[in-house]
Amino acid sequence: MNIVLAMLLGIGIKGISAIVEIGIQILMTRSIGVNGYGEYTFFVSLVETAYFILFSGSIKLNTFYLSSSEVSLKNFKRQYLKKFVLPISIIMFSIAVLIQNFLYSVAVIILLTYYFAFDKSSTLLSCGHQGIALLGEYLMGRLSMLIGLIILVELNKVDIFLLCILYGIQFIVMLIWFSRFEYKPASCLKDIQVPVDKLIEFQKSDIANAFIAYAPAILQYIFCSAFTAGFTGILGIIKKIINFIAGPTAKVFLPECSRLYKNGELEKLKETYIMIVKVQMLVIGSAGTLLIGFPKLVLGFFNSELQQYSNLLVLVSFCLLLIASVGPVTGFLQMTGNEVVCNRNQWISIAVMFIVFFAMKNDEFFAVYGLCAQAISEGILKYYSLCKWFEDKIVSFSTYILLWFPTMLIYSFIKISNLESSIYLVIITLLFNFSFNIFIALQDTIIKKYIEKYLVKNIA
Predict the structure, then answer these.
(1) Exposure string (b/e) for 39-65, b if CB count within 10 Å is 16 or more?
(2) Which among 117, 136, 229, 391 is least surrounded, fewest beta carbons within 10 Å?
């Protein structure tokens, strides 16, 4: 599949799944309140932290190696499952049984299905089956969770335990979907011997990601309250939007990045990266318009008692979305043999985050400020590393100012006009921002060539 088409397909699928995910969050917070959502967020954060600390590095090996059609990881996966995944899972499950914690036993089972589902997805993506993988990973599981949640709401049976079960069911649905399109490598393919160092470097990066993504909610729950953890989980909507943007573009781009890097096509690699940044701004700009321009309106959808924290939403949104607009630097560095640089950047930013945690320890949202500090520090390090690798400012500051101009213009206008509650203005400003960024994206060389090729083919 053409990389532009695959990326646009990914963004479309991710856009729909973003709506589904937000719908799930709104239903939950309205059904069980912010405190209840905090309990659920804590459980999910523990499961996903375990996944990123233990197993996710092997998923990136699929992206790194299987982008080449001549190789297989069959033997490595068999050994990895037998010698690491299953023993670790059995140990954790046994501990949960010994301490008689049924919910933690369920969490271990969910963790295992999580691993299998994402292994299948990344394999299909790396082998060119982007549409199937993106539909399964981003849409099918979430749709099943939304349907299940609606049924529970109608039956008035919503509780934390059933929500956790629904969370696990989505991964089972993903596995069922992927089983219909099973990828079976040909026996003639060369079976790669994976260096342990490569796996460890990828895993180190994801351990850092786990701290960044889930430590704030976990720490808010432990040291403050379920309410603050719930609000932090709702702020996670920004992270989800970033993942919805970066996820499909990076998943499509990274195998192509790996291929171009191995073939020495560095100029094409640079052009492709710039194209990714411009396309991602279609969604980042729109998300910025909504979250920065209309924070009270957004928080009101979840729970009216959260509207008093609208300034905090604006701060977090600006920090995270600004850094997201740098592009998929982490994945790029990993696919070009710079895992050490990538890991160093992340761990420095995590150190900054924990320093801010300590400095703001008396504030009820201390972890949220730490999250902002981490995002800004890592973003600066990412941009520096990217420019250093390319030996050039791959995306200039003036380009970033241009890409962010409509969002900041809209924010200023709304503050002056005091029209923050106008639904009509939301629609108008979203259309304006999206149209502006479409115009910028259409000036990109790769996108122009793709459109010309498509038109010539269809006219002919």
Answers:
(1) bbbbbbbbbbbbbbbbbbbbbbbbbbb
(2) 391
Residue 1 reports pLDDT greater than 60: no
SS (H, E, C) 294-325: CHHHHHHHHCHHHHHHHHHHHHHHHHHHHHHC
What are the start-end ranges of the E strands in 41-184? 71-72
Residue 323 C-alpha from the chain's centroid: 13
Scored b (16 or more CB within 10 A) or e, 339-369 reads bebbbebbbbbbebbeebbeebeeeebbbbb
Comparing 57-71, 108-122, 199-213, which segment has the lowest mean pLDDT? 57-71
Place of tokens 């719908």: 23
- Judge contact between 369 and 356, C-beta under 8 A: yes
Angle of helix 141-155 relative to helix 160-179, nearest 10 degrees?
A: 150
Closest CA to 116 of 137, 92, 90, 142: 137
Give per-residue pLDDT as tens, 120-147.
888 887 776 777 887 888 889 899 999 9
End-to-end CA distance of the chain: 20
Q: What DSSP line would sit under 81-109, residue for residue?
A: IIIIIHHHHHHHHHHHHHTT-HHHHHHHH
- Residues in contact with 2: Cβ distance below 8 Å, sequence separation at least 6, in sequence order: 450
**Which of these, 177, 215, 222, 194, lies nearest to 346 by C-alpha position?**
215
